[in-house]
Write a structure and sequence with these properties.
By secondary structure, this protein is an alpha/beta fold. It has two domains: 6-196, Rossmann fold (3-Layer(aba) Sandwich), CATH 3.40.50; 199-359, N-(1-d-carboxylethyl)-l-norvaline Dehydrogenase, domain 2 (Orthogonal Bundle), CATH 1.10.1040. The protein has 17 helices and twelve strands.
């Protein structure tokens, strides 16, 4: 497949705006969609986005070919559709995109969190889409970015290597080939079980938020999230949850990275234990906590990251009592049932599948 030079960005939050502007500055034709038109009216008026960046990073005015809240126009604009939304919105997007998707299109979730591509494909099919569409997911978001105004975005950092996997994995090479001109940073993520079960935010984000709930509410997040919030006791809870995650991955035949291995790989940070490794990570100094408990670290990471990992564990005989405790705490604080709302194997139609059936599905796309 030839390199793609037309993209549609689904979602005009801080990440979507940064991606749209950056792609434009790299020479691509870009469409930007957002459900609420008021949120993109200034971008349409200016026909683009001002992008600022770190020293030497991409910057300038990213002119956009189309800015719209019409999903049909957005989907039909390009072959590659970049979904840059909280994973809690993936199912809704699959539903509204389903009638408009065509053979040969590629949908990439940035990121998928855990089992995101599987959920997207199921909802898409349940809503009558029989087109030959390839859905892929990134393990994490490629940018550290923020929105600086209605038509302004800022990139703080672009990750050097981001694993990406298609569903099924036999299509990953095709997806990487299609986008490599714009994004050589994406690398083969093996399959969507690997990208989903190496989801470190599932362990760090909800646990640190919930175990520091009193401090967050009292200070409105005015403390260092990882440095002050990760005490030795909190780190021991993180270690238990991380061990459960790695064991769940092992139960489906995957050697997942541990949190300490991930810190070594991503930041070249070491320690005798997780507490020490986190305290030795200079990049964590200065990062403030969420200002409120009504934050995606709970309402996104619990149902879309922690629940699917725990659900896989329960299906394949792994004790996930630590994860269940955090899910329960999040449910109590938000007065909701994140088990019922989350990506469970039952909701995804996987509850009867053996490990070999699940593995064959994510690698080859075959269910028989």
């Amino acid at each position: 497949m030839k390199n793609i030079d037309k993209y549609t960005i689904i979602g005009a939050g801080h990440g979507g705006k940064a991606m749209a502007a950056h792609l434009s500055l790299m020479g691509a034709e870009v469409a930007l969609w957002n459900r609420t038109y008021d949120h993109i009216s200034m971008i349409e008026k200016r026909q683009g986005i001002d992008l600022e960046s770190y020293e030497g990073g991409p910057h300038g005015f990213g002119k956009l070919a189309l800015v719209t809240s019409d999903i049909q126009k957005a989907v039909s604009f390009a072959q590659v559709l970049m979904v840059v939304l909280p994973s809690s919105a993936h199912a809704d997007m699959a539903k509204i995109m389903a009638p408009h998707l065509k053979d040969g299109q590629i949908v990439i979730l940035h990121p998928g969190r855990t089992l995101g591509a599987i959920e997207f494909v199921k909802v898409m099919r349940d809503n009558g889409c029989n087109a030959d569409v390839t859905v892929a997911e990134a393990e994490t978001f490629i940018y550290a970015s923020r929105s600086d105004g209605p038509a302004q975005a800022r990139i703080f950092r672009i990750k050097e290597a981001v694993p990406l996997a298609a569903l099924p994995a036999v299509r990953t090479e095709m997806v990487l080939e299609a986008i490599k001109h714009s994004y050589p940073e994406f690398i083969d993520g093996i399959d969507v079980l690997h990208t989903g079960l190496n989801n470190m935010g599932a362990i760090f984000h909800p646990t640190l938020t919930l175990l520091n709930a009193g401090w967050i509410e009292h200070t409105h997040g005015e403390y260092q999230f990882y440095i002050d919030g990760v005490t030795p006791s909190v780190a021991r809870v993180l270690e238990v949850l991380d061990r459960e995650r790695v064991t769940v991955a092992s139960s489906v035949g995957i050697r997942a990275r541990t949190a300490t291995e991930w810190l070594q790989l991503a930041y070249n940070t070491y320690g005798e234990n997780l507490h020490e490794a986190i305290q030795n990570q200079p990049g964590y100094y200065g990062i403030k906590a969420p200002p409120t408990l009504n934050h995606r670290y709970i309402f996104e990471d619990v149902p879309m990251s922690l629940v699917p990992i725990a659900s896989l564990g329960k299906r394949y005989g792994v004790s996930v009592s630590g994860m269940e405790s955090i899910i329960r705490l999040g449910s109590i604080i938000h007065r909701t049932d994140y088990w019922r709302r989350g990506r469970t194997v039952e909701r995804l139609g996987l509850e009867q599948w053996s490990v070999s059936e699940l593995t064959r599905f994510v690698r080859e796309g075959k269910t028989e």
